[in-house]
Amino acid sequence: MVGFRSTVQTLTAKPWFRMPRQPMLRHLSYAAVAVVFFYFLTQKLSAFNDYEVGEIAFFAIGLAGLSLLTGINGQISLGHGGFFAVGAFTYALLVNHTGWSLVPVLLVVVAVTAVSGALIGIPATRLRGPYLAGMTLMVALGLPYLTNQYDSLFGGDQGLTTPPPTGPASVNPEQWLAWIQILGALIVLVLLGNLVRSRFGRSFRAVRDDEIAASLAGIHVARTKVIAFMVSAGCAGLAWAFLALSAGVVNSAEFPLALSIYLLAGMVIGGTGSLMGVWWGAIIIVYLPNEWATSLANDFHANSLVSANLAIIIFGLVLVVGMLVAPGGIQGALRWIAARVGSYFSSGRVTNVSLSLQEGVDPIHPASDGESVTTAEKQGV
Amino acid sequence: MQFFLNITLGGIASGMIVAAVALGLVLIFRATNVVNFAQGAMAMITTYIAYSVLHRGADYWLAFIVALATGLVFGAITQVVLIRPVQNKSPLNAIIVTFGFLIFLEGVAGAIYGSTTRTYPAPFSEAGQKLGGTQIAFSPFDVFVVLAVLVLMIVMLVLFRGTDLGLRMRAVAFSPEAARLLGIRVRPLLTLGWGLAVAAGAMAALLIVPTSSLTPNFMDVILIYGFTAAVVGGLDSPVGALVGGLATGLSLAYVGGYLGGSLEPMAALALVVVSLMIRPEGIFARPPPRRV
């Protein structure tokens, strides 16, 4: 692939602007652009919209972890809701019982959920496909019962309350919250972007494509799968620590099966395995159930039962129809369009385009974040 | 001692229902290598249909037959419309499709019937019986449950072992390519397999619903237990589904009876993990070949 790209670049004219070649620099420059964008966005928006932007940010973290696990490492988890519960309750217990400041609390939350991810990941190394899916589904359905069983520690149905974060007096609290969450999301995405480009990322993909071939190539398959699970669970834990930060309360009712499904649907919509696509998924998870579904129900004068269930019906439809019709998700479709546009302007990169096309249509082997295509796109336009 | 006996009897009754759910999962997995996560939700839909039929004044047995028949048709249609397109793709696609269908059906049921709990009648008394002076928690309805699942198992056994159609279905499940070369039309048989499996699930739902209650998600936990049973017994073994179902039902009944009902789902998880650690392919299944 690298060979392809370098020949391609010598063939085409020098573009007016090129992103840095080093992944770290490239991802940091994306993040810098995003910081500026979000700064002005949160200044413009009302307090409630700032709150929603923060929600988008922490859903992006959770989706990135899930997308890494499923799209890049090929393991499916229907039970990320379970890790959310671990992250949120760990956060609440730490905040209420230790008095540490936010950053060390979040680091410990990530560590604890990563360990819980390893607990699931280790048996999962012996499982494939449906077995793993079923087992993780059981985690999602079972953990809330567990918190009810030990309700003296977890606060039973009421759950645990957490204090809101205190920012400087000049910034309103919703904005401060959104900044914390956006900063967290960008840090996580930069780190994951580098991870995906690193030796670990390559072994994740090798294991996904063919476990036996990967082990013949000297990759420790079981260890790789456990690491992927730990990273993914750590992201889930951080995401839900942020949720607890926003909501101020953690209880087991916040982790219904629907939550794991929202995540899965968000992943499929954004594009499985795409770290850019998580933003699309996060936007849809935040806005579809609360706003779009409600206004759609109002437009059709639907009764209260229909409007209460519309979001879940749409997410179910999206999962089914999306998988059947557009398995690459939004990011896959964008990539496909970009490849088309690229090939229209230049015939010199046909090989490159056909490569990205294959990656665009196959959900299970998508390009990690479309590196080959972004170059094609930039050179074409 | 009496407590232990009652828990055991309850475990046998619920174990038989779990076995019926597991049988539905196994039939589908054997034939199409897909775990049908929508199994429970599809059975929930057929139960709501039976409920509507009952409310039109039909008697219990007519509603029972209607539920099984709609299950058969529903399963067949689902296979043709949703499963065929993802059949030969990565197993991940099929998992996501069936899971999405699960949530879609629960949403639809919620939109039509709401989340209010409804009661569904039992055909026989649900009260425990006195046997030789001691009160035993095994009602006539429990006897019916055990017998109904046994009849289901025997019908399936006769169908698969004793008829020409069953032989062809087994050939398709064993090796679709070879079956096609021998002149068997594979696709209609896969469709029929899905129909039978969903009908089995519909029956399981009718057996569980009088003792729980009818809500859009009442089958979620039962599906999990059915999956546990299928994994313990082996995802491609119908006998394993029966044995695994009983084992799951009994272990969960003991956990629920002695440690607390909230721990049952986690106990099921522990059972799956332990059984996969010891014998990943299940007790009764043939070890799957891994292709390079």
Structure description:
The complex is a heterodimer of chains A (381) and B (292). With 381 residues, chain A is an all-alpha fold. Chain A has a single domain, classed as ABC transporter involved in vitamin B12 uptake, BtuC, CATH 1.10.3470. Chain A is built from 17 helices and two strands. Chain A has a two-stranded antiparallel sheet with strand order 1-2. In chain A, helix 8 packs across helix 9 and helix 15 runs antiparallel to helix 16. The longest helix of chain B has 31 residues. Chain B has a two-stranded antiparallel sheet. In chain B, helix 5 packs across helix 6. Chain B is mainly alpha-helical. Chain B is built from eleven helices and two strands. Chain B has one domain: ABC transporter involved in vitamin B12 uptake, BtuC (Orthogonal Bundle), CATH 1.10.3470.
The SS-based structural class of chain A is: mainly alpha
**Average pLDDT value of chain A?**
77
Question: How much is the radius of gyration of chain B in Å?
Answer: 19 Å
Q: Strand fraction band of chain B?
A: under 5%
Say what the CATH topology of chain A is: ABC transporter involved in vitamin B12 uptake, BtuC
Strand order of the largest sheet of chain B: 1-2
Strand content of chain A: under 5%
Most extensive chain-chain interface:
A-B, 53 and 53 residues
H and E order of chain B: HHHHEEHHHHHHH
Most strands sheet of chain B: 2 strands, antiparallel
In short:
The complex is a heterodimer of chains A (381) and B (292). Chain A has 17 helices and 2 strands.
Comma- or semicolon-separated keywords:
heterodimer; A: ABC transporter involved in vitamin B12 uptake, BtuC; 2 strands; 76% helix; disordered N terminus; B: mainly alpha; ABC transporter involved in vitamin B12 uptake, BtuC; 11 helices; 71% helix
How would you summarize the topology of this molecule?
The complex is a heterodimer of chains A (381) and B (292).
Chain A: H1 2-11, H2 23-44, H3 47-72, H4 80-98, H5 102-124, H6 129-149, H7 151-154, E1 160-161, H8 173-197, H9 199-209, H10 211-216, H11 221-247, E2 249-250, H12 257-270, H13 278-299, H14 304-325, H15 329-345, H16 350-361, H17 371-380
Antiparallel strand pairs in A: 1-2
Chain B: H1 2-32, H2 39-55, H3 60-83, H4 91-113, E1 129-131, E2 134-136, H5 140-162, H6 164-174, H7 176-181, H8 186-208, H9 220-233, H10 238-258, H11 264-278
Antiparallel strand pairs in B: 1-2
Helix pairs in contact in B: 1-5, 1-8, 1-9, 1-10, 2-3, 2-4, 2-8, 3-8, 5-6, 6-8, 9-10, 9-11, 10-11
